[in-house]
Amino acid sequence: MSPGCAPAKVNLWLHVGKRRKDGYHEVGSLIAFALDATDELTAEPADALTLKVAGPESAGLSGEADNLILKAARALAREAGKRDPGAALTLHKSLPVASGIGGGSADAAAAMRLLNEMWELDWPLPRLAKIAEEIGADAPVCVWSRPAAVEGKGERVELLGAWPELHAVLINPRQPVSTKDVFDRHDSAGGKSANRVRLPLGVAHAAEAITLVRQGGNDLEPAAMAIAPVIADVLAALRAEPDCALARMSGSGASCFGLYDGPQAAARAAARISKAEPGWWVMATRLGGCGEE
Question: Catalytic annotation on 107?
Answer without folding.
Answer: no
